[in-house]
Design goal:
Blueprint: H1 2-14, H2 22-51, H3 66-69, H4 87-103, H5 105-108, H6 115-125, H7 133-145, H8 164-169
Helix pairs in contact: 1-7, 2-7, 4-6, 4-7
Length: 182
């Protein structure tokens, strides 16, 4: 399942003028995967807190959560095409609202060892290179189909990245020690 999804994503990125190298493919896929993973992790933690009678404070404000901006769902769990952004609206939201919001986490963080600081640091160093909002929508749809497992570990565990294994599968180009070029 992961391998085919990454092949499909790479096919879309291949058409994208802003993404010219395998490193671009990995970077662009990674930030999207991270936001989906974080949203799922936070939903799990919120559910757990509710079952324990506690309140959970989400890291991301509601408009910036995956299920709100990237993949809004209908009552039956399918993509709500009436609410899902695409085209210029999606690209502009990501570039003009989402990325500046995430970059601001570094300044708001209570210290460098917090997830907020790390989010701000990461999103301060990268940018969305997917220039077509239609390509971005297609990539988001592929990523949204993936079912990512959430653990009690921080999303920043595993040598700083939750994406090591999925990208090892990406078009079978990445292996443990090398990248196979086309």
């Amino acid at each position: 399942m992961f391998e085919q999804a990454f092949k499909n994503i790479d096919d879309v990125l291949w058409k994208e003028a802003g993404c010219t190298t395998e490193l671009d493919y990995i970077e662009q896929t990674s930030w999207l995967l991270f936001l989906k993973y974080l949203d799922g992790l936070e939903e799990d933690r919120a559910t757990e807190a509710k079952l324990d009678g506690r309140k959970y404070n989400f890291i991301l404000e509601e408009p910036y959560r995956w299920e709100k901006w990237a993949a809004p769902k209908t009552a039956d769990g399918k993509l709500d095409h009436n609410k899902a952004m695409t085209g210029d609206d999606l690209r502009d939201f990501v570039n003009q609202k989402l990325f500046p919001y995430l970059q601001g986490f570094k300044q708001k963080a209570t210290g460098p060892n917090t997830i907020e600081y790390k989010i701000g640091e990461i999103f301060g160093e990268i940018k969305n290179k997917i220039q077509s909002g239609y390509n971005l929508r297609e990539i988001i749809d592929h990523i949204d189909e993936l079912r990512l497992e959430h653990t009690d570990q921080s999303p920043m565990d595993h040598n700083g990245s939750i994406f090591r294994q999925p990208h090892d599968l990406s078009l079978n180009r990445c292996t443990d020690n090398s990248i196979e070029l086309l």
